[in-house]
Amino acid sequence: MNCGQEVSNEADIAVKLCVSDEKRTENNEKRSSVSCMYHDDGMKHLVDLVDQSNQEEHKDGEQLKSTYPVSTDVKSLAVVKYTSVEAPYGFLRLSSNTNLNQPPANWLRASTKLHGNQWTFPKTTHSTIFSSFQMANNFTDCVSEVDVISDAENIKKLLKIPYSKSPISMMVHRVGKTILLDDFDIHSHLLRASQKQWEWLRKFYYEHILQSLQEKEKAMMRKNKSRCNLQNKNMFSKFLYYSVTDHTPGQPKNTTIDSSNDQKSEEENHEDHHRPLQPFSQYALSLPDPVVETQEEVLKESHEFLRNVLWNFEDIRMLIGTDMPIFGGGTHPAVSLRLRDTKKPINVLTGLDYWLDNLMCNVPEVVMCYHLDGIVQKYELLKTEEIPQLENSQFSPKVVKDIAQNILSFLKSNATKSGHTYWLFKGKNDDVVKLYDLTTLCDDLMDDPSQNPFKLPVAMLLYKVARNMKESADDRHKEGTICKLLKNCLTLLDGEKQPQVVTSVHYLLSDVYISSDLDPSTIVEQYSSEGSENSHVQEEDSDEDRPTSPSVEVKTLCYPHHYRQFEFQNNKNVPHIVKNWDERCHLSLTHVIEGLNCVYKAFQNSASTRNEMDDVTPRDKGMPGISEEKITMANPYSPIPLHYSPLKGTLELVTQEKNKNKSSDLDGSQHSQSDVDNLRSTKNNEITPLSSNSLLDWKACNKVMLYQKAAQVYCALAEASNRAQKFGQALKEVKLGILCCERAQQLVESYGKDCPQEPLAYHLGLAGDIHLMLPQGSALEAHQEDFLNLGTLDKLVLNFLEKDKIGQLGEYAWAYGWSLDKESNLNLSVQCYQISLNMWSGGRRAGYERLTKRLGNICNELGVFHMNQAIQQWEETGDTSENVTELFNKSFKFLQQGITAFESVSDIQNIALLNSNTGRLMRLNAHVQAPYDSGGGRKEVSQQEQYYHKMAIKYYKKSLDVLRSRDQYQQVWDTVCWELSTAYFSFACLLQDYAPLSLQAQEKVEEEVVSLMMMCLKLCETSNTPPAQQPLYQYRVASINHRLASLYHNSYRNHSTEDLRRKQLRLFADSYYSKSLDGFQDLENFTEFLRVTLERVGLWEHHLQNLTGFSSRLKTLHQILDYMLSAQPVIKELCNEQKTCKLLKSMEKGPDGGGDGNETVTQEEEVLETQKLLTLLDQRLRLVMQSMVKLYSSKGSKFRDSLKKWSRLQTVFTQQAKSMSLQDYLLFVMDKLQDTKEW
């Protein structure tokens, strides 16, 4: 074997071992040794039977063999979480006849010392009562993820219970879903310790356990210190040192496996820009760590194992500590070494011990070295799966698996309370294993709860596990468990003795209810949707329903799944936390107040301690060794450290210390070690702008964090109140949040640090929201009452704020000032947003964008507000005064400020909307600038009026340019297009109706009107018109065509010479009249249809006047009649509509003649207008008929028949007009004309 060959790191080995078993046989190994001991206090005389024969144990093994058949494979997977050695030790095979009684040359030498504790056989000295706590603190990520945390030796003891009569004594603790097991030596802790140590447990042991045992069973196993056992240990130690090669691969190396940190950090950096707004997490202080100092006190006796292994045994996950040395080299990269006496065969217990050690350490082989009286005889290489089949050492791995599952189920179903101390006990030769709840049973036996040495370690572990869960990525899914752990932690702590820990627990509890990484604006959606069914954290099982001393028979541990059902019944409930956001906020605020109370008590205690130190007598002050500036008080719970210097380099260290003292004297400055540590931590900490490890002590740091948490809670409450339109309550909560932010800022600045202002900026932004909405709400008196009403928690918070006499509060009192004036609130809102934006200059983009959009929104509100004020004042006075002009200027200023704000964050939609509002402002300006004469008559369009109309069109076009296309912002695009078409149409109508002929020629004005109308028509005739607005667009198109027809009609009349231009004008006019008639007919707007028809008839009548030929005149008259007859369907519809309206009016009219007056007036006006148009149509029809008669009479006998026909029709029509209504008369005439139509 190549002993010097390097092998792979065992941390990378994760080989699944599937081992099988066969029948077991009786073990003939016998041990006998008797020793006696006496307890110091003389109260009890105990006989200790050590190394008694294991014959009875192996009889139990034979019973198991005969009862249970050989099992199938057992699954095992071991992964190394931590190792203090880089690789297995190089293995050197010893030659035959090597004398192991003689020590090797390298024995106990530092150069070849086996790293970790020196191994002896069997292992009895490594475990302590805090071993599992040490592992749990080192691997808090495993707590609640694994089932058991313990020393490997304790696991082996439990799995050997059915095979051994040896006693069992272990302390059991429950942390979340994890069981912590530690060996408890009764002899050393209860029988040999001083009178005051473990006094409460000693009383319980004497009164409840020894009284129930028989005299023979009172003997308790203690450490085997016989000469034979010591010789075996020394021989095994020598054997290990013999087997180590001179070239041990690698040096001691602390290796912790963690492969996810780099990937997580990269993902966090990549997603940092896309995270939601978190103003209370990015700039918050990190929670001071109280665990380090406490661990030094309570875990100083803990043992650091050679390696920590995550062992999966079937469905059981265990974190175990082991010191078994692993050797390897060549073709055998990992083996374990065992030394056996050829005279003594391997028994079941020894084989089980070897098998479990290899499974736990993931070692596939074991090398057995056989010796005879210390002389090496031979080696034997066995695979791990072959160990259960060894002769005289056969056992069933399946049964071992059942034992493990049953023991775990028994512990989990009975040790259910986090924070309680349980004692797993089995007497020698006892058939029952008992579990005592010492916290409950020994409550009356402890004068001081702090007498339980496990209390503080359990509390600190609960705190550390909860904090680790809180810092994990999926902490939202573990809120119930975190809250439960922290509340159990609080029950174990004393606020006066551990104020820092208690304060930290209260802060974490407040952070569980309202997490710092939550966006306050979304907290309502996250917690209000699920209601509050599970409104409290589920409590643990009641003491009344659970026995305090449950037990299990040893023989039942071998039954498959015997206790599995009880574990499921007791672990089926998952703790829940309140879902209602309001209750969460108040619970969080309650814990903030509790934390502040604890901090102030700590301040008072430290102040009283300083006062006692100041009261030292002058004689004491003059004593040598006592400093007048600082007196270090001794801690009764910790030893006094002895300062020493290493032998090597002592002279150099002394010289350096002298030089250091000289330089300190020259500089006149003295720095304590804590200051140096603070400076180091400040230098290395670059996570946040302000670190809790800086010059702030834990009290100041916790106060800052608690005030920041209170500010966040009030911010969340204010967000919810604002959404519920409780504006007075919201403003009160913003006020309290701002005060908390101010106090936290003053505390940090008092230590010479810069405090980030983003939380304060968020409050100011929220205050801006409230001032914006406050004038729009109702019941303002109720809002003011809510603003002035302070709750109990609010008064307590204000009380703590007043206790800190650091500086005056109220710098931002203007932000939460109460006002009912709309303009004042809007101006306050703008001021809040502007200052908040200045504070966000170094913050995240999300916060800057949100506040900028709010600023743009409030500027738009102010712009519209001043715009409406200007119009209202102009309508009241009718004069363009300086006030109106000033209001228009204010409106324009705020709208431009809003556009600038939205442009800074590229908010395309809002930029377009504010440009559209600016266009509306320009149109209103143009409306106000319209000139009137003294009689109220409208004058022609002024130059200033034209300017504002053109500016309005400019801003509407700018809005469309910003949007670019309709694809992305369809609704905004359609709105702006309609506004732009309105601007075109209104400006064109003004130019057409009140043409500025004093400034421009008629033709120029007409060209401009046509241009404006055509651009408006282009916007209205698009195929993307929304269905709901289709009638509006159709009406505008018809109106544009009507206006264009009227324009060309007017130009035609004014054009004196008969030429091609005149003909084109007539054709243009007739074409647009035709389009307009089609549009109004589709819309069923009969009044406008009749009006346009009459104008069209007038066009051709004017054309008729210029004709001289008979044929042309006759043709024109026929065409005019056709235009008039086209109104026949419209007149029929009017008749039906009027009849229907009369019927409905008679049905809806009550006995008192009630009805909607406004609607009646509108209908009557429309009827009168229609009647006028029908009357005019009748007149035009009579004139056309007269013209026809006159035209035919001019030709004499040639058209005698036609003349008679038209004369007769004229006579009939005249007679019928007297006896018929106008509508019926027109229909009668048109029917006759249709029947006698000759063209």
Automatic annotation (TrEMBL):
<feature type="region of interest" description="Disordered">
    <location>
        <begin position="526"/>
        <end position="551"/>
    </location>
</feature>
<protein>
    <submittedName>
        <fullName>Erythroid differentiation-related factor 1-like</fullName>
    </submittedName>
</protein>
<feature type="compositionally biased region" description="Polar residues">
    <location>
        <begin position="250"/>
        <end position="260"/>
    </location>
</feature>
<feature type="region of interest" description="Disordered">
    <location>
        <begin position="659"/>
        <end position="685"/>
    </location>
</feature>
<dbReference type="InterPro" id="IPR056583">
    <property type="entry name" value="EDRF1_TPR"/>
</dbReference>
<dbReference type="Pfam" id="PF23723">
    <property type="entry name" value="TPR_EDRF1"/>
</dbReference>
<dbReference type="Pfam" id="PF23788">
    <property type="entry name" value="EDRF1_N"/>
</dbReference>
<feature type="compositionally biased region" description="Polar residues">
    <location>
        <begin position="666"/>
        <end position="685"/>
    </location>
</feature>
<feature type="domain" description="EDRF1 N-terminal">
    <location>
        <begin position="301"/>
        <end position="549"/>
    </location>
</feature>
<feature type="compositionally biased region" description="Basic and acidic residues">
    <location>
        <begin position="261"/>
        <end position="275"/>
    </location>
</feature>
<feature type="domain" description="EDRF1 TPR repeats region">
    <location>
        <begin position="851"/>
        <end position="1219"/>
    </location>
</feature>
<feature type="domain" description="EDRF1 N-terminal">
    <location>
        <begin position="73"/>
        <end position="272"/>
    </location>
</feature>
<dbReference type="InterPro" id="IPR056582">
    <property type="entry name" value="EDRF1_N"/>
</dbReference>
<feature type="compositionally biased region" description="Polar residues">
    <location>
        <begin position="526"/>
        <end position="535"/>
    </location>
</feature>
<feature type="region of interest" description="Disordered">
    <location>
        <begin position="250"/>
        <end position="275"/>
    </location>
</feature>
